[in-house]
Sequence to fold (994 residues):
Amino acid sequence: MSTEDKHSKDPFHPHVMPLWVYFGVYFALLVLTAVTVGVTKLPTHAIFGEMTHTVDVIIAMAVATVKATLVLLIFMHLLFDNKLYSLLFSGCMFFVVLFITFSMLDTHSRGFVDEIREYTISAEGKRTGMKDWRKNAEAYEAEHGGEKKAHAEAEMIVEGTEESSVTGKDAEKILADEVKSEEGEKPSDKTQETKPAK
Amino acid sequence: MSTEKNYLNHPKGLLSWLITVDHKRIAILYTIVVLFFFFVGGVYASLIRLELAFPNTMIDGGTPALGGATVAETEGMYFDDKTYNKIFTMHGIVMVFLVIIPATPAILGNFLLPILLGAKDVAFPRLNLASWYVYMLGAGVALTSLIAGGVDTGWTFYTPFSTLSKSVEVAGIQFSPVIAITLGAFILGFSSIFTGINFIVTIHKMRPPGMTWFKLPLFLWGMYATSLIQVLATPVLGVTLGLLILEKVTGAGIFDPALGGDPILFQHFFWFYSHPAVYIMILPAFAVISEMVAVHSHRNIFGYKLIGFSSVAIALLGSLVWGHHMFVSGQSEWLGAIFSFLTFFIGIPSGIKVFNWLATMYKGEIKLNTSMFYVIAFLINFAIGGLTGIFLGTLVIDINLHDTYFVVAHFHYVMMGSGLFAFFGGMHHWWPKIFGKMYNEIVGILGCLVIFVGFNITFLSQFYLGLQGMPRRYHDYSGFGPEEIFSRFHGFSSVGTLIMAIGFVIIALNWLHSLFAGKKAPSNPWGGLTLEWATTSPPPTHNFHKDPEYIHGPYDYDKILPENIAQKPADKE
Amino acid sequence: MSNTIDHEGNPYVAHHFVDMDQQHESAKLGVWLFLFTEILLFSGLFCAYAVFHSLYPEMFLEANKLLSWKMGAFNTFILITSSMTMALAIREIQLDRKKNCVWLLVLTVILAGGFLVVKYFEYTSKISHGLLPGKFFNPAPEYAELLKDTENPQVFMSIYFFSTGLHGIHVVLGMVWLGWMAIRTANDAFSSKYYAPIEMGGLYWHVVDLIWIFLFPLLYLIG
Fold:
């Protein structure tokens, strides 16, 4: 018998919650889901302008966290159970946050101290078995005569996607991510070449 | 032979062992396979040392290796670069995943944890048995890679090596040894997780009335910290190896720069598990030493709470420092400095432990028996291994010493000189309890001294090799660097390995002699106060003939007169 | 176990536990620890998502439009509903209403099946358009046109397939466990005195839901 359980001599009594709690949580979860979809899919560009995407991300993640908390506290009984479970769960989340934070700190601070130099590897160094899928786009353009015909889902393209300047047709850049962090905030300016050499 | 029923002789039959849910029998099952794999890993280590003792035999036919043998005779005895890569990779994988990680938790932990708590078994006995079978499955899958010629990536499976390695056609099917071995390690992770879950739950929920957290034997604190890491870090290894396998199969592009991935991300993923895994290897050693030092100094442990908390502190801090394996990988130097800074903090709880053990021994009634020799050997080795760890955790020094033999020597001092020495010490300390037989004390001490001397000759010379710039994982150093020094110190190192091998033979013979011709062990040969000494040796199937009462703390040597400590077998029912 | 000692007249207490409370709490702690390992297992994929999202933000913004958010939202609805039926099933067994419990468990399993059906349609649509992970990535012309200015969209598809695939495997495992629980409950194996295996299945099922609560906005909405 455990020292943490004060009632260990008592017979086993489960904790039962009233029915409305479950339905309340359920509807809250549905409403919150609707909120996330609404915020991200409605044209909120007019309100948030340049910040739209950032705001979307923040709201979506905040709402997801609230939903997760509801499930954890009510459906998974964390609120009523031994506090040990909550404590251990926080420890687990601490590990998750730690893992993601440090990994991202690395990818975003490369080149702060020592400048990153570019290296190219020869075409023989290439080791992808990937198909040259950008050719498919050429086929599409040939068929539609350059006219920007919107695909069912293409209407949602964000305006002003920058032209990518493809550099080094016959040379392959290695460590593409490092190249980008050197470029700073605009990773897409310098395209990492994934096409096989022509 | 006594006719008394105990867990070893009742029930009988091989099947009763294979379907047992008794934690003590599972510990024995683990002992058998772990010692077998320790032998396998040791053979690989000897092959490495053999190659490095006579490195240029294959190239320079004139070198009269092994007393004037000609080239034709020595061919096939030493290895080319590819074979050598496979040998050190297998040495690493076998020793890390199959030996050191399971050794102390799965053998001594399994055997002792419930008994120290006065419980009849761990919380989930069937899960415990499952963990052994999963371990066997994982080991089997990992070893299938040998069919396809072995793996040459190093035990870390770094991405460009592992994703580029070719698959081999075996009996008409394409077979990738890297996938086989990563899958094996993935499965072994489950075994580790099962053990961890079992231990945490057992310690939380099955303590006897009156045994509060601060009255737990320190062994349990160490096991608790170990299990926390096993539960929290091992799944990340799982997802890492899973992604690696998918990367190889589908070219996912997560770790492959040619497909837009980041190979350094793999190292983050890998070390997020594997650095804490270093503490999975060393924390159980701390747990074992804490018990042994108190029992054989016959003194209340000094700084109980500090030792307990420092184990948990190491478990937590150890999760913050994985980047110090990656200082020269191309990781951000800025982040490297942070990791280096955090690494120094590990020194604090480790230092606390060492000083507390020394303080426990001070003015104690030290019995210089085999266990005490192992404690002293551990303390010396751990001091060397720990302090060189601080050197290597320093960013600027590591850039110089990274991937040299200095690193090799450092982690062998910690993993083997500390981790395995504590394991072997623990095996000697609890041998009478586990098998109910005494071993020869003199031969035990001799074995300890021989492996201690052999170990230090092997790895102290490697510190010097590292400082002279000898890189690790090279099969040949002829015509390269200060060759004279390299050759001489590699020679010392190989001789040390030979001495160590002799030491292990001595230990094995002593154990075998004890098993077949040893004297019957009393229930409390060392005068220990923890609950395992309150039952018979070996314990009955349900551990205690009657439920033990928790009457005194685990280290109350100052309160209890020696003659009151149970020397007679526990009361019969 | 042959040598079970019946401490309080509760025949479900295993020999090495003192009472039901200890056994129940142990099982629960064990399951929580197991669930932590599940969360950390997925954390690797979330970490990969976070890193690549920050490396290729424009690509994620484009590539996430390849996924059908309507299907994703519908699946979210299904999973949340199944989470509630699961929670209610535990409440019913706590109140000893076994029949209700069986029906709610069956409903949970059916909803999980529905989730997988939707997933199946999503996957077949992606596969038929060549939107596959890694080197198999070979999008149909209209998708290639959409993506041609982005870098490495194959990484997005890899993360999409791996994380939803791993999640899908967990859904299947959950269905198996909960289905078995329904059968055992129907066979009168559980009561308000002993229902730990159902509760365990419930906790597991909620974690499957938790993971989806994060996967859905990350993959389908914000990209």
Remarks:
- The first strand of chain B starts at residue 168 and ends at 170.
- Residues 14-564 of chain B form a domain with the Cytochrome C Oxidase; Chain A fold (CATH 1.20.210.10).
- The two ends of chain B are 21 Å apart (CA to CA).
